[in-house]
Amino acid sequence: SATLLIGGVAYADPIQVYSDEEIAQRFHEINSSYEVGEPFDSEDATFVLTYGKKPDDPVPYGSHNVSMSGGLYGTNVKVTGSVYHNGTFTYTYGGTLVATKTSGATPKKYVTTIGCIAYGVIGESGIGKIYDGSVSASKQNSNSFTASISKTYNGYMLTYTLEPYVVVTTSSGDVFTIRA
After folding, report:
1. Whole-angstrom Cα distance, residue 81 to residue 65?
2. pLDDT tens-digit profile of 68-98?
3. What sign for the dihedral angle of Cα 46, 51, 53, 55?
4. Which of 50, 80, 145, 163 is most buried, taking the most CB atoms under 10 A from its CB?
């Protein structure tokens, strides 16, 4: 198990192995529990340092493919494309996502969003969120929508997460969300 030492505080990798769904759920719990600039407790800090994407991982410097689908109320939509995160101190994240209706009536609206949360050093030895933002685009009354979106932020991050999703409003006004 690897250990990261920050400001005299050791953050060690946990032994437990999580599924992708468990990791996503735990990130959601952590992210909704803290504000930007608020230090995490040691368990949450260790988790984000272990399971967040690191800036020197090969995946961030290039694209990460996305394929997801969902439906409700008689409308089904498939989303494909790629997301990315790159830079040093000034970071850019975004992607190109294509939402296509595969069955049902033409949706009233698509809203495509890529959320990004970056984690870094807070104070002398804490770990926490240094950035929490998103970028979105929308289109109305269409069978498909291609969104090429990006956003920039500054900071010194250790790990990050990206969350692409599409909110679909059906022809009858019902709403559902498709997440990766």
Report:
1. 6
2. 999 998 999 999 999 998 888 899 999 999 9
3. positive
4. 145
